[in-house]
Amino acid sequence: LHLENEHGGFLLKGRRSTLERFYTEDVGEDSDENESKAPNKPFLLLRREESTEFDVIFKPTLAQRLEGRIRVLVGDVYSNKTLIELVGEGHQDEFTLDGLEEDTQERNADSSLKKDIIEAVRVNHIQFGDCPVGKPCCRTFTITNHTRTEVMRFEWEADAPFQFSPKVGHLHPGCAKDITVTLKSDVPVTFRRHLVKCKVTKINFELPQRQVPDWDDQMSIVTWKDTTRKDPGARWPKKEKMVETAPEPAHTVVEDSSQEAELYLSGIADYAQFQLSTTVVQLKDTLPFQTTRATFTMHNTGKVALEYSWEEAADSEVVQKPYSIDLMC
After folding, report:
1. pLDDT exceeds 70 at position 111
2. Which of 69, 109, 184, 212 shows the smallest number of beta carbons within 10 Å?
3. Range of the structural domain that residue 32 is part of
4. Does the pLDDT value for residue 64 go beyond 70?
5. Pairing relation of β-strands 2-4 and 151-157?
6. Which of 63-67, 141-145, 225-229, 279-283 is predicted most confidently?
7. Where would one find coiled-coil regions in this protein (predicted)?
8. Residue 66 burial (C-beta neighbours within 10 Å; 0-12, 13-18, 19+)
9. Which residues pair with 221 in a beta bridge?
10. Residue 78: inside a domain, yes or no?
11. Smallest Cα–Cα separation from 63: which of 97, 85, 94, 98?
């Protein structure tokens, strides 16, 4: 394999299965010709129906788009049929979404391929998969502030049936925070790359930054309040637990610091549906201690996965029928 990597950034690394098939000398049949012939260069040998794996690593040093190629040398000739295009984009963002999935639909439907321009695939997609109607499906990812001195405020612009937790919050310099997004729909619905935006701004606190604690809308303050209720014989009235959302620290927004992060959400919320080939299973008459089997078919006719379990009905009864035994003398 030959890696064409003019500007650097790409690395090709063989796995253990590759190293086991890597040779530095001829491995053909023993002959005088082979014994006297010195090996030209190391090579990889794959026998019939064998396979091996490689890792392609992208490690950019600058915020730029890089391209490369991997060519396969078969014998002494490059194979025109085997050409792997490598595309990567190095970025240096102050605010990132981490732990997301590759948007395969964007990669497959990218119209720029027709223009011989390959775009790097964005990793800004969450696939919920199949979700039963009325039940929550949750996914978690991370947001990160990569700056050294700036405090950032984030706010997700999302409505039902999607919920973000936390939806609003602060990120101190060099800090990260886990975000949980929940899909819960009371009606059947399908989402394909539903766009949700996160508004991000830089802020300045009124107090010194070291004196301001972390904050988001999921943080709360617990206090105990006196009530008018009092137990018989008690000297003090009962106290009631009060839970309130922690107030957002006072701050001002830095001018011209607003930016948006995009996140795509996909999922299907629907009722599970199925069909049975029969509703009555008639077993043949069976002698005691013998076994009889019957087969029927269950078919998932819905759009989501079908989860099921079998249990015996509470009102079912075993009907015992008399039987006779003929004695043979």
Report:
1. no
2. 109
3. 1-92
4. yes
5. unpaired
6. 141-145
7. none
8. buried
9. 244
10. yes
11. 94
**Residue in the structure block whose two tokens are 């619905």:** 189
Residue 182, both tokens? 């929940």
Which of 244, 195, 193 lies closest to 218, judged by CA? 244
CB 300, CB 125: distance < 8 Å = no
Query: What is the DSSP code string of 171-193?
Result: E-TT-EEEEEEEE--SS-EEEEE
On whether residue 115 sits in a domain, the answer given is no
Beta-bridge partners for 169: 154, 216
Amino acid at 205: F
Q: Which of these, 218, 198, 164, lies nearest to 96 by C-alpha position? A: 198
Q: Rounded distance, CA 156 to CA 163, Å? A: 9
Q: Which residues pair with 179 in a beta bridge?
A: 141
**Residue 4 domain-assigned (yes or no):** yes
Using a pLDDT cut of 70, give the percent of the chain over it: 80
Find the angle CA(195)-CA(200)-CA(201) to the nearest 5 degrees: 155
151 contacts 173 by C-beta, under 8 angstroms: yes
Number of domains forming the structure of the chain? 1
Q: What is the DSSP pairing of strand 125-132 with strand 259-270?
A: parallel
Q: Is residue 25, in this structure, part of any structural domain at all?
A: yes
| End-to-end Cα distance, the chain | 85
Amino acid symbol at 329:
C
